[in-house]
Amino acid sequence: MISIGTSGWRYPEWRDGFYRGVPQRLWLSHLAAQMDTIEINSSFYRLQPASNYRKWVAETPPDFVFAVKGPKLITHVKRLRHIEDPLKTFTESLALGPKQGPIIWQLPPSLRFDRATIQDFLAALPQGRHALEPRHESFRTDAYFDLLHAHNVAHVVSDAPTFPCIEAVTADFAYLRLHGHDELYISSYDDEQLDEWAGKIHEWNRDTYVYFDNTMHGAAPRNALSLMARSTSATRREASPGRPPRRRDRPA
């Protein structure tokens, strides 16, 4: 299963491009008709009521998947320490049902790797798929990778010009965020770059979630659709004659 989408969907910059002629109230359903996943960003900034999640579920197809960004209260304010109460409040607010995919935890760039802190945080996470996106070079260490392996938590492979791209697959699924290779949140990926990432995804050979975060000038949806086309072509080539492509089953 390869799920490809964008990081968020509420971008006025997309109004005259991807959303041309589409009322704002239909932006999510318009995107969901063309992609099979999206990353919810608003949950990072403030606690979302369960009614919001139920609304988004109703606006998307049955097999759509939402990744959810963990709150900055946990990652940036408390810096992964003493997080039991806010973690419980956050996870209990989620009302996505079978459409819930991984929860992504984006760490602040100033947060260095500390084995005890990461170990305690991973141990506190509830059941389900979780992905961790560090933004400090100190996480490029086997001690970090070993902890993720032990808890089946995915390291987020992040492509960006301002923080390290640490390529490591640490769980039974992979998670990739493409923030813009040359200009953060801006630059578009060209054909050669998309081919390179498509090849890496194929080599990982496991369920993979991919989100384009180069949203500011509207490149994200274009790039997502281009990578989806490459993924579909690769799946068709992989299938032997007379044998259908692998099913895109959702994780249990």
Describe the fold and architecture.
- The structure is a single chain.
- It contains 9 helices and 8 strands.
- By secondary structure, it is α/β, with parallel strands linked by helices.
- It has one domain: Alpha-Beta Barrel (TIM Barrel), CATH 3.20.20.
- The chain has an 8-stranded parallel β-barrel.
From the N-terminal CA to the C-terminal CA, the straight-line distance is: 12 Å
Query: How much strand?
Result: 15-25%
Report the major sheet: 8 strands, parallel, barrel
Overall strand count: 8
Strand order of the largest sheet: 1-2-3-4-5-6-7-8
Radius of gyration: 18 Å
Number of helices: 9
Query: Architecture, according to CATH?
Result: Alpha-Beta Barrel
SSE order, one letter for each helix or strand: EHEHHEHHEHEHEEHEH
CATH level 3 topology: TIM Barrel
Q: Which structural class do you get from the secondary structure elements? A: alpha/beta
> Can you give the mean pLDDT?
93
Helical fraction equals 25-40%
CATH class: Alpha Beta
- Number of individual domains: 1
Poorly predicted regions: 240-252
Region (Disordered): 229-252
Protein name: DUF72 domain-containing protein
Pfam families: DUF72
InterPro entries: DUF72, UPF0759_sf
Question: Outline of this structure?
Answer:
The chain has 252 residues and is α/β, with parallel strands linked by helices. The relative contact order is 0.15.
Relevant terms:
TIM Barrel, 8 strands, 252 residues, DUF72 domain-containing protein
